[in-house]
Amino acid sequence: MSPTLVTRVAVQAARHASFSTAAPLLKPMATTSTRVTSSGLSKWRWSNLSPQARRNVVVGATVSGCVDAYVFYNYWPQIFGSK
Known about the structure:
This protein starts with a helix and ends with a helix. Helices cover 53% and strands 0% of the residues. It has two helices and no strands. The radius of gyration is 25 Å and the shape is elongated. It has a domain at 48-83. The chain is mainly alpha-helical. The longest helix has 29 residues, at 51-79.
């Protein structure tokens, strides 16, 4: 193996070995500029979502509703033996 490759592997191994989940990597939420509720979490509002996130929520709800309607219409009667 080349010395460069060995050095890279050793550095990556050292980074992974010294990683600690207890060490704070980010600022606490209270110090950020977002509004914080009493529970410590920022408020979730529809108006705070990006347009892409709003579209994803609407598409997900629509697909979920369509699948539920399909399953209900096609399989619900068979569950109770009415067909």
